Amino acid sequence: MRSFFKGYKTFAIVFGIISVVIVTLIYNKLNVYKPLEIYQPAMVSPELVDSTVQRQRKYHKIADFSFINQNGKTVTQDDYKDKIYVADFFFTTCQSICPIMTKNMANVQKEILNDNEVMLLSHTVTPEIDTVAQLKRYAKQKGVVDSKWNLVTGDKKEIYELARKSYLAVKSDGDGGPYDMIHTENFMLIDKNRQIRGFYDGTNPDEIERLLADIKILKKEK
């Protein structure tokens, strides 16, 4: 009798291990949906977050904005209502990371060109140089599709405040004054509720692939 129970116990252990392995394999095979994180200022490195919002743990959203795009049209948060979008900060005369970022954003544009749920938004950090005419020239050079991708200029302080307090995108303090300069490689993924759902190195092709995969995950949310 004792040997019977000993054998049964061994069978139960082996069966349990096999069951766990099978369930794990099925889970991975089916690629079960895992929601993306909703980023709050308190979750992000303090060097990327304005000191006024560093302790915020919930309810963080991208603030209202109003800028002018490459076609001279006013662009606001309403143009991105019920849209998923990718945001970044650049300037047209940049010779270092910006050309790579713009090329990678153009690659994202190709992937979402026929997707009505997804758009792109690039903010110049040198609005005194990047006029509407300059943005238009740049847009034509880089293959920007106007219906998918807005390159925007406007008030420098407003742009810089959005970068630091809303998008949590930069590594330095500043006041948006004449000597203040933002230079960041970050792409931010924003959901339909204006919440940050991911950060990506816009110069890294592997990160762009991760961004595209995350957009697909985000599109599954109701």
Structural notes for this entry:
There is one protein chain. With 222 residues, the protein is of the alpha/beta class. It folds into two domains: 32 residues; 179 residues, Glutaredoxin (3-Layer(aba) Sandwich). The chain is built from five helices and seven strands; from the N terminus they run αβββαβαβαββα. A seven-stranded mixed sheet has the order 2-1-5-4-3-6-7, with helices on both faces. A hairpin with a 4-residue loop joins strand 1 and strand 2. The longest helix is centred in the first third of the chain and has 29 residues. It is globular, with a radius of gyration of 23 Å. The chain starts with a helix and ends with a helix. The mean pLDDT is 88.
> Would you identify the regions where 5 or more consecutive residues have pLDDT less than 50?
none
Q: Strand pairing plus helix content: what structural class?
A: alpha/beta
The CATH class name of the largest domain reads: Alpha Beta
Major beta sheet, strand line-up: 2-1-5-4-3-6-7
Shape: globular
The overall pLDDT average reads 88
Strand content: 15-25%
Number of strands: 7
Largest sheet: 7 strands, mixed
